[in-house]
């Protein structure tokens, strides 16, 4: 799930110039994305200061940054808490995600056979990982492989603006998606759809293929929202 987090360099010359606020934001974002901090949970400044051994200034800076990212909300006299998305927000984000993934699938399908075959092989491995996770009834393992499956299309597309936008959408949606994949039947159906997407990618341009990779990707994301609503 590393692609969901802002990049922090291991180069000490760059780390030296990284603000404490950015480091605190990174830590809090990691806790939100791991589920250690859940929607509605209050983020108490004194507790964060004590835990991270920093002053209040970088903590406030980090919380403001997370608020601008749409991941926490500040309310007068109620403090700051992890944001809970409304049903409409979840639906809107899924629709946007479907649009981006469909576009990525469409563009990649137009590329050469070698590039498509290489991506298909990578996706096959991830489908295998998800099959293993299903057999082990390991929702967390499945979730991480699922994230990597979808990110592979965005990464191979190579458009930095789309990468940034997709990352923001995934950060906001991750708890809803993880909840969706807690259901074993949903995981099985999801991975069956993944395999159809890979087959369509591998056979892109073949007239006999009933549905394009782009159409299957978009339908898969929309179907994920349907499954979430069933929970």
Automatic annotation (TrEMBL):
Gene3D superfamilies: GntR ligand-binding domain-like (1.20.120.530), Winged helix-like DNA-binding domain superfamily/Winged helix DNA-binding domain (1.10.10.10)
Transmembrane segments: none
Pfam annotation, one family: GntR
A single GO molecular function term of this UniProt record: DNA binding
Annotated ranges, domain HTH gntR-type: 18-85
Keywords on record: DNA-binding, Transcription, Transcription regulation
Top-level taxon in the UniProt lineage: Bacteria
Signal peptide bounds: none
Protein name from the UniProt record: DNA-binding GntR family transcriptional regulator
Source organism per UniProt: Ottowia thiooxydans
């Amino acid at each position: 799930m590393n692609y969901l987090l802002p990049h922090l360099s291991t180069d000490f010359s760059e780390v030296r110039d990284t603000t404490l606020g950015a480091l605190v934001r990174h830590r809090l974002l990691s806790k939100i994305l791991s589920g250690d901090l859940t929607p509605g949970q209050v983020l108490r400044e004194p507790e964060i200061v004590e835990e991270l051994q920093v002053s209040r200034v970088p903590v406030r800076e980090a919380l403001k940054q997370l608020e601008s990212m749409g991941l926490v909300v500040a309310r007068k006299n109620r403090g700051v808490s992890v944001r809970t998305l409304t049903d409409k927000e979840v639906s809107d984000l899924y629709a946007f995600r479907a649009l981006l993934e469909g576009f990525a699938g469409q563009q990649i399908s137009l590329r050469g056979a070698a590039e498509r075959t290489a991506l298909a092989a990578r996706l096959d491995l991830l489908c295998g990982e998800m099959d293993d996770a299903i057999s082990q009834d390991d929702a967390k393992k499945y979730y991480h492989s699922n994230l990597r499956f979808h990110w592979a299309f965005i990464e191979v597309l190579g458009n930095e603006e789309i990468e940034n936008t997709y990352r923001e959408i995934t950060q906001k949606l991750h708890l809803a998606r993880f909840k969706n994949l807690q259901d074993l039947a949903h995981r099985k159906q999801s991975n069956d759809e993944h395999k159809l997407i890979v087959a369509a990618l591998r056979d892109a341009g073949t007239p006999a293929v009933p549905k394009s990779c782009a159409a299957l990707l978009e339908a898969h994301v929309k179907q994920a929202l349907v499954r979430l609503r069933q929970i």
